[in-house]
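Tutorial handout. Part one gives the primary structure; part two gives the three-dimensional structure as tokens.
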Amino acid sequence: MFEIKTIGLFILTAIAEIIGCYLPYLWLREGKSVWLLAPAAVSLALFAWLLSLHPTAAGRVYAAYGGVYISAAIAWLWVVNGIKPTTWDIVGSVVALIGMAIIMFSPRPS
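Part two.
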């Protein structure tokens, strides 16, 4: 159950971070409203709070979270940007997720 909760929390965290970064991108690069910065700030605050919920050392959480973020960003590329990931995008995501699993779920000395 720990593994499912951890992965679910990482996915929520990645979504919050991506939204928090994508909204300013829309303002800066796509000419959308400056008002997108308000929900972006809320989303990034949510991102930081979600990272604090993990029950292990912060450095380990940040390192492992990166693997989930990579996969979430590739999914975003496909779903939101409408760009189909390449085989190498998917292979890289899988490698990153394997790294996340090794970091988060390997046995630790007591």
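Part three, for discussion. The helical segments are 2-30, 37-51, 58-79, 87-105. The mean pLDDT is 94.
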